Structure prediction request, 199 residues.
Amino acid sequence: MGLEDIVSVLETYRGREKTMRTLQYGLLFVTPLAKQNVRVALETISSQIGTARLILRLFDDLPMLQYSLSCFKENKGKDTLVRWLEVVTTVVDQLYFPVEHLAWARDMKVFRGSSASLWHASLLLWGLSLILTILRSLRVISLMKQQHRQAAAKEDKDKIEVLYRRELLTVIMQAADLLNALNWMPRRPWTKPFLVWQA
Prediction:
């Protein structure tokens, strides 16, 4: 990847978000290999990047609303189950942002009250969104397998395989995020929380 490619990625909001996310979790991943003083610095930097991502999400409401409306328009002609999973996921995602914003505002003392219940609600919404996305991808994978068996041309099969791998990667990524969401829940399914570098 050349300099122009890197700049083109960083010039877009989604590109910066993915870069910051990679840095945030990448720093945590290497903390076990670092000395104690360096480890603390890495965790602090990772935390600051996470806060920066949260601040940037304060401006996501209108773009998310526009995206949601476009999803509703583009849903025609899709498999019924896939369509409804996408609709419900979009609604859940749309609800997530104001809940997170209000939790942050309470942390910043903009509004009175505890933010704990709101952060818990945002975690539940995030977890629900991840589950719905995984179910959607599994349904799409199932449909792709049927299309692959029915496809006659090699080019069609190759296109389906590319899309299949993309959906499979989505399942893996969303499943990893779901583990994190469950780990951060007040009542997680397991006893001990993940180590910092695992979260």
